[in-house]
Amino acid sequence: MIVPLVLLSAALAVSAAPYQEELIASVKENAADLLLWEPGMNFHPDATPEDFTHLIGNYSIEPRLAAHKKKSNCEAVCYGHEDNKNVPETFDARKKWPQCESIGKVQDQGDCKADYVSMMSSNFEYIT
């Protein structure tokens, strides 16, 4: 009973690659005149979900931040200033610059790893 189940599982696991190849061939055959790009396999058929986590924003910054803090001298000198006595305990940009409408607006960036682009581009209207 276990052997047929294992064989069935193996057959199902490798069946995705032929389906993708058929789909690519169909797209090339039916839409070749319309395409501005070349259809093909993007990833190796044996790729695992873990191979894609860096593409969808599922990575942790903690190890890199810890490594950066180890290399830098953040506690003693922060951003090149030896004396940080003038830094306030709290700061609210909405109160400091109430005329700036973009500060209080929170945009939905979803799971996009390019969230910095939407933040920066929304601020350009106030620069010009």
TrEMBL record:
Organism: Diaphorina citri
Signal peptide: 1-16
Source organism, top-level taxon: Eukaryota
Gene it is expressed from: LOC103512302
Protein name, entry field: Cathepsin B-like isoform X1
Keywords linked to the UniProt accession: Signal
SUPFAM superfamilies recorded: Cysteine proteinases (SSF54001)
InterPro entries: Papain-like_cys_pep_sf (IPR038765)
Gene3D superfamilies: Cysteine proteinases
